[in-house]
Amino acid sequence: MTKFTHNSSRLFENWFNFHSSHIFALISLLYICILFLNRAFILADIAVFELLKERNQLSLFNFLYSSQYFITPIWLVWKFSVTALILWMGCFMFGYKVTYQALWKWVMCCEIIFIIPELIKFLWFFLTPGDPNYNDILAFYPLSLLSWFNYEHIPEQLHYPLKSMNVFELGY
Predict the structure, then answer these.
(1) Contacts of 69 by beta carbon, 8 Å cutoff, 6+ apart
(2) Distance from the CA of 83 to the CA of which of 49, 76, 112, 141 falls in 20 to 30 A?
(3) CA atoms of 44 and 126, how far apart (whole Å)
(4) What pTM was computed for the model?
(5) What residue numbers bound the domain in which 46 lies?
């Protein structure tokens, strides 16, 4: 039994024996690529944005959307740090000796599961014929409770909680 425990802890150590900067760069690039694809193929085809482009009134939206490319890595560092801190404090309170760096790596690896719904969302609107509505894009989150109902008949205060109750959150 001791040998099994020793081998499993060694496997755990070897699994997380990687440079977190490489994985972080990969996750950041994946999110930035998805942002770019959404902008190029989904948002560009929305009639409201086409009208604003014709009138040359799209500059503020372009600035705000382009800033997301630079803010994404900062947001990911913040998200990983806060989540790892909360988990580390919980482990400390229950007497587990886990380093903050190990939890940060764990949280970062678990973030990969949230890339899947972003890809599904992109493919959904890319492959679905017709002109999507901007509100439809904002309200869509695959495999969530909100996707079971018509979001227009639900109070706006409930959109985020219903989007948060999804299969990917359970996997995380």
Answers:
(1) 32, 35, 36
(2) 141
(3) 11
(4) 0.78
(5) 2-111
Number of separate helices (H) and strands (E) present in the chain: 9, 0
Amino acid at 24: F
- What angle is formed at CA 152 by the lines to CA 148 and CA 153, rounded to 5 degrees? 75
Mean pLDDT by 10 residues, the chain (172 residues): 50 63 92 91 71 69 83 95 95 90 90 92 88 81 87 88 88 80
> What DSSP assignment string belongs to 88-138?
HHHHHHTT----HHHHHHHHHHHGGGGHHHHHHHHHHHHHS-S---HHHHH
Instruction: Report the domain count for the chain.
Output: 1
d(CA 66, CA 39): 10
Radius of gyration of the chain (CA): 20
